Amino acid sequence: QVQLVESGGGLVQAGGSLRLSCAASGRTFSTYAVGWFRQAPGKEREFVAAITWSGGNTYDADSVKGRFTISRDNAKNTVYLQMNSLKPEDTAVYYCAADPTYWGKKRAGFSSWGQGIQVTVSS
Length: 123
Hints:
The chain is built from no helices and eleven strands. It is mainly β.
């Protein structure tokens, strides 16, 4: 397993942008697929985006398609989530997750999780 730490969250006005980072420990991180999930108060944790180990394939939830972009820099052991045109409904705790064999949108597929970081979008 790898250790994951999210950063880059905070408070932003609607229409603004934030870039989240997910930094990983471990020399094998470049072989892991990574996903971003989010959980708003009183709601289930939901899938946001995922990227394969090479970065060659990505998959976005319909709710963020065209606004959020997932990318990775394996040389830096980091995955990013660029969030543009933010809406109040994007307010949530955002988590990154990684797994060496699974790539998709199911929470149960990912074996390593970060602690999460708060993103708040004001109207």
